[in-house]
Design goal:
237 residues; three-stranded antiparallel beta sheet; 6 helices; 41% helix; disordered C terminus
């Protein structure tokens, strides 16, 4: 007689899992920043593509992250200094009018780029997920080329909207206002795509959970254990 015994099943990530995990990370990062930006505040070292890294003490965006090291000097609040920057928690702050002017200029560039690509409701941030998260010390990138995608455009709009009490936005902000609903629908459509993929592939959620616990990105070919299958084996009755 043949009996059934439980055996642990190993799930191997596919290329689609990898792409969905990247998309999910971008959406999660966007969601995590929305409330604070709509309140008009920006976290220290937040990287806004097309604008730069935010230094909360200076209330301004700069090319390099807070604490960036180069040739034995460290960058903080717009200045190079001879000693390492203390890694203390700097609370979020509201950008200056000059900083918000940079944000609106970047929003104008982003809208022009999206229009040139013919995207009515384009995808989320076009770069890596880290583009929508606080930067790590000792890293830098070119933040003044634009091309961040609708994720960046939404964040810029939210930040400007959150500071309308102290900043009078111009036509770029008004034009973006007509696109915000469409941009948000594009993000929501992709959120549903991720949810549908997770529902159809239970191993995907385990893979993402493992990624969060280890701090490593999901890659095709990686495996994760969890869940039980059923395999047949002979047994006496």
């Amino acid at each position: 007689m043949v009996g059934l015994t439980g055996c642990e099943r190993k799930y191997v990530a596919t290329a689609q899992d990898e792409n969905m995990a990247k998309l999910q990370a971008k959406i999660d990062a966007l969601d995590a920043q929305k409330g604070k930006l709509m309140n008009g505040e920006v976290e220290n070292n937040f990287n806004l593509p097309g604008v730069g890294y935010y230094h909360a003490e200076a209330c301004e965006f700069f090319e390099h992250p807070y604490g960036y090291e180069q040739d034995g000097r460290w960058f903080a609040n717009g200045k190079w200094q001879e000693h390492a920057v203390a890694q203390t928690t700097v609370p979020a702050s509201r950008p200056t009018v000059e900083a918000l002017t940079k944000v609106e200029a970047a929003l104008n560039r982003e809208q022009q780029l999206l229009a040139s690509q013919g995207k009515g409701a384009p995808d989320t941030a076009g770069n890596s997920a880290s583009d929508t998260a606080p930067a790590t010390t000792g890293t830098t990138s070119n933040n003044h080329q634009g091309g961040g995608g609708v994720g960046s455009a939404l964040m810029m709009y939210w930040l400007l909207a959150g500071n309308r009490g102290s900043y009078a936005p111009g036509m770029g902000f008004q034009r973006a206002g007509a696109q915000v609903d469409s941009w948000q629908r594009g993000v929501d459509d992709q959120r549903r795509s991720v949810s549908a993929h997770a529902a159809a592939n239970p191993g995907y959620s385990r893979m993402v959970a493992q990624s969060h616990s280890t701090g490593t990105a999901v890659k095709a070919g990686q495996s994760v254990r969890g869940g039980f299958g059923r395999s047949s084996s002979p047994s006496a009755s």
